[in-house]
Amino acid sequence: MISHPSPNAGERRAGVRPSLVVLHYTAMRCAEDALARLCAPEFEVSAHYLIAEDGRVFAMVDEDRRAWHAGAGAWGAVTDVNSASIGIELANPGDAPFAAALMDALEALLAEILGRHRLPPEAVIAHSDCAPGRKIDPGRRFDWRRLARAGLSVWPEPEAAPEPPGGDLAPDLRRFGYTAEAPPDVILAAFRLRFRSGASGPPDATDAAIARCLAGRWGATA
């Protein structure tokens, strides 16, 4: 862990404690470029941690403080995601596989964070989950299944007999956590980006089965 404090932080509002971990990609050339931006006052952005391609972990904002990484959005009952989350930036341009050393370091860091704050695996979400239509990171190249196998996120295993296509996915997706204000097609795209990358067109039976699985196993929002 390398200490590299960012001035871009504040107090968590209303005494809120972390209940989410939000994953991002930097979409920059290298970790050093991202580190400079995340620590520059004029850009007014930050995260709690940045993980470099070679596995180095930079600690920029203390976990008891509010980093500026998520912006407008919502997840479940949370409407101030910055106050209720820990943000992790991953050095990746957005269109390439995530480096093995980076993923190893991410697993170790997530295990520490979830244990320290007593958070369940479903607390780990994508920036695209809480800001659908506005953000797409960590993107379709990120390996969510790997995190789920390690108990550090979730992955659906739907029943073999899905519902017929054409059903309304909104209640199940909302129950799982997709509560940000956005049109249904934007929510669908965010959901597919994480759980069914490459799918297109209207919602189908597979979408319905995955959404039902997510809501049934990890849903916490009415």
Radius of gyration: 17 Å
Low-confidence stretches: none
Strands across the major sheet, in which order?
Answer: 1-5-4-7-3-8
Output mean pLDDT: 93
**Alpha carbon gap, first and last residue:** 39 Å
Work out the strand percent. 5-15%
What's the number of domains? 2
CATH level 1 name of the largest domain: Alpha Beta
- Total number of helical segments? 7
Walk me through the structure:
With 222 residues, the chain is α/β, with parallel strands linked by helices. It has two domains: 148 residues, Lysozyme-like; 49 residues, no CATH class. It has seven helices and eight strands, in the order βββαββββαβααααα. The protein has a six-stranded mixed β-sheet with strand order 1-5-4-7-3-8, sandwiched between helices. It has a two-stranded antiparallel ribbon with strand order 2-6. Helix 5 runs parallel beside helix 7. It is globular.
